[in-house]
Design goal:
alpha+beta; single chain
Length: 97
């Protein structure tokens, strides 16, 4: 039987608009809980907490597995101690006192 096949996605099944996630990019001082959203240009953003300003996740389809494998992106609102276990203590940015 010939028909249209479903669209193949390189993203894990849980990555969809409104999905809870925890993000900890190298440029961030600490992990953040938030949601993933796709805009009308098919670009993915992460919205931390109740923020209305998102962080662009460029080419998420190509980079998702690297983000997952390196502990920069987690499904759901992961405990920060779990996230931090992926990184040496020296990788955390500290605020000057």
């Amino acid at each position: 039987m010939i028909g249209t096949s479903p669209t193949l996605s390189l993203l894990p099944f849980w990555v969809e608009g409104g999905a809870n996630a925890t993000l900890f990019l190298h440029s961030m001082s600490k992990p953040r809980h938030g949601v993933l959203q796709m805009d009308d240009k098919n670009e993915w953003y992460f919205y931390a907490g109740k923020s209305t300003e998102g962080t662009l996740l460029p080419d998420l389809s190509a980079n998702i597995h690297t983000l997952l494998d390196t502990g920069q992106l987690f499904r759901g609102h992961t405990k920060f101690k779990t996230v931090c276990a992926y990184f040496p203590e020296s990788s955390f940015k500290t605020e000057s006192t």
